[in-house]
């Protein structure tokens, strides 16, 4: 059930698009799947998935970022979503997240999508840093984030799960360069 979309960002295997109001059925295949949503506060009802989709669309309108839908360039199927949302706006730090459909787990898609988001955040948007957290039971994310260069900083309470999640930061290497006098 794939179809071609317009992509604003691509990798070797993935195309990043934007959510729109017509994407509820697509969003259901991602956030409506309890295997995807169980570690981010789900499972979600169809109404909750619709609310999440609306929040992503509003995020794009307000901040020019969202957890963008990501598609296979080969099959045009939805792989998942990956993107940004404001975290500490005053410090130009955004939260990065990746949610994949189970058919795409353990194939390197999360790393490929995350690296594209990191490059986009630092090189195109010029953000100062990125924040990411994960459910304490999500061991794979605990290994994944450090491989991307994120460093553990603290435990942060995440209201949707009611738990403290391991939390990480990755600073923009360009932001860390001090001009020489």
TrEMBL record:
Which Pfam family would be a valid example here? Answer: Acetyltransf_3
Q: Where is the N-acetyltransferase domain?
A: 14-173
Top-rank taxon: Bacteria
Q: Read off the CDD domains from this record.
A: NAT_SF
- What's one GO MF term for it? acyltransferase activity, transferring groups other than amino-acyl groups
- InterPro entries (UniProt xref): Acyl_CoA_acyltransferase, GNAT_dom, N-acetyltransferase
- Keywords of this protein's UniProt record, alphabetized? Transferase
PANTHER family hit by this protein: GNAT FAMILY, PUTATIVE (AFU_ORTHOLOGUE AFUA_3G00765)-RELATED-RELATED, N-ACETYLTRANSFERASE DOMAIN-CONTAINING PROTEIN
Q: Which protein, by its recorded name, is this?
A: RimJ/RimL family protein N-acetyltransferase
Taxonomic lineage is: Bacteria, Pseudomonadati, Acidobacteriota, Terriglobia, Terriglobales
């Amino acid at each position: 059930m794939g179809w071609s979309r317009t992509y604003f960002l691509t990798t070797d295997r993935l195309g990043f698009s934007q959510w729109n109001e017509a994407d509820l059925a697509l969003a259901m295949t991602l956030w409506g799947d309890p295997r995807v949503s169980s570690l981010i506060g789900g499972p979600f009802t169809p109404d909750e998935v619709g609310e999440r989709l609306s929040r992503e669309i509003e995020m794009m309108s307000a901040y020019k970022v969202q957890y963008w839908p990501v598609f296979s360039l080969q099959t045009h199927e939805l792989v998942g979503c990956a993107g940004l949302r404001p975290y500490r706006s005053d410090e130009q730090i955004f939260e990065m997240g990746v949610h994949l459909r189970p058919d795409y787990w353990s194939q390197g898609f999360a790393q490929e999508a995350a690296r594209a988001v990191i490059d986009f955040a630092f090189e195109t948007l010029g953000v100062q840093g990125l924040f990411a957290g994960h459910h304490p039971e999500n061991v794979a994310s605990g290994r994944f984030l450090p491989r991307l260069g994120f460093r553990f900083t603290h435990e942060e309470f995440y209201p949707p799960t009611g738990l403290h999640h391991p939390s990480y930061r990755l600073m923009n290497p360009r932001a860390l360069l001090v001009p020489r006098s």
